Structure formats: C-alpha cells, structure tokens
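Q: Give me the 3D complex with S-adenosyl-L-homocysteine.
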Amino acid sequence: MTAVWTGVVVCSIVAVFYLAACRAPAPDPDSPAAFAAARTALLEELRADGIGDVRVLGAIAKVPRHEFVLPQDRDRAYANHALPIPGGQTISQPYIVALMTQLLELRGDERVLEVGTGSGYQAAVLAELAREVYSIELDPGLAESARQRLARLGYGRVQVRAGDGYFGWEEAAPFDAIIITATAPRIPERLVAQLKPGAPLVMPLSEGFSETLIRARQVDGDLKIERIADVAFVPMRGAIRGGGDREDR
Ligand code: SAH
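A: Here is the predicted complex, encoded as structure tokens.
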C-alpha cells in the first residue's frame, strides 16, 4: 500500500514538473513572430479602411516599421497610430502612409521625391514600389540617422539629403511623383515645376483651421487639385514660412 502511495506521489510530482515545463512562455512583444502577427492584423485593418492597391499593401507588409520607431514604442509599431520620433516630429499613421502612397499610383519604374524624411519609413515604403527615391529632411540629425537606418535595412539606394525640401532636388528632377509629409500653407510652386506633366504631388495643405490631404497635377498648364481627406501632420518649416515664391498657390 505504501508503495502505491509513493508511486502516486512521485507521479504527481513528475506531472507537476512536466506541466510547468510545457506551459507556453508568455508571448514576447518584441519577437519576430509578434511583429509578424501585428503586421498581419494591421494589413487587415488597412484593407477594411479602403486601401485596395495590393502593391502598397505588399510594401507595408514588407517594411519593418518597428525598426523606424523609438525603442520604447516597438511593441506598438504596427498599431494604426502616428508615433513620436526625435526632434518633436512624428512617423505618420500607417493608414495615412498607405493612403498617400496609393495616391501616387506607383508602378515600379518611377523616380520619386519625398519632402520630410523623418524616420525614413515612408521612404522605405516608396523604395519598395519605385525605382529611384530621393528624400529631403530639414533636420540634419534626423537626415543622418534616417540615412544610416535605411542603409542598415537594405534601402541604401534611397538618397537622403539634409536641406529645405521647399527647393526640391533640382539635379534629379523631373520626378514622376512628389510627396510632402509635413503640412504646408501653400502648394510650393518650385516642387510643381520639378514634376513631369500630369505627375502627382500629394501633400497635406493647411486651409484655415483644418488640414486637407490633396493631390495636385499639372494638366494642360492648369493645376488640378483633388481634396482627399482631413488629416493632421507636423508643419513644414523653412522657406515656405518666410513667404516663399510669390507664385506659390
Ligand atoms: N515621412 C516621415 C515622417 C515625416 S514627419 C516618416 O516616414 O517618418 C515630417 C518631417 O518633415 C519631419 O522630420 C520634419 O523635420 C520634416 N520637415 C519639415 N519641414 C521640412 C522642410 N522644409 N524640408 C524638409 N523636411 C522638412
């Protein structure tokens, strides 16, 4: 009888240790599997919110947004929110990145200019979809860290320049598309002049107390403007605030 009880006790102890060993570990929010799951959920959300361009969704699926956010925000990198980056700036909400990218209608062989490199995330998304990407950042510190980050992640062919994007990138013009990721009080005429005829300029434009995402194209000498959505971006700084060209619209 004692032997039976000893057996039961031993088996119970073994079972307890076995179950403890087999218990699933708490999911690590900073693991590749957690990032992949969060990214899949984000893609579902973007699809449900009307992002239908499969190439854009593919680019969002590929670019590791957790590498572009602050270390303490990595576990929120695939939530559909804007997040802070150094210098008081923000990395845009994934939905807005997807929407703006979709509006550029990239097919793969374009030369694109971005104004407002920030973390470099939008530039990486563009690099997945276009042949050449040029990106200008006003803050030299942000420009340098974005350049290094993009190179480390395999996007070294994105050209990053520190400077005022208001003046565009004359040597690389004309562009097939331009995107500005900071709100401007006017459409910078110099950037319109660096676009191929009919090519889109997508940007947030401040209008009174609101900001509107617009797409502008030069058609038969006229600038056709589509109003897309209400948005909230950090302000474009630099020469555009000082009056700029008189021809700005
Ligand atoms: N596209 C970025 C986020 C942009 S936040 C990303 O994916 O992370 C807007 C950025 O525009 C900021 O980094 C800000 O410094 C920059 N910026 C503001 N005015 C600018 C100007 N005149 N020229 C170039 N960059 C500008």
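A quick observation: Helices lie at 2-22, 32-48, 54-62, 94-104, 121-129, 140-152, 189-193.
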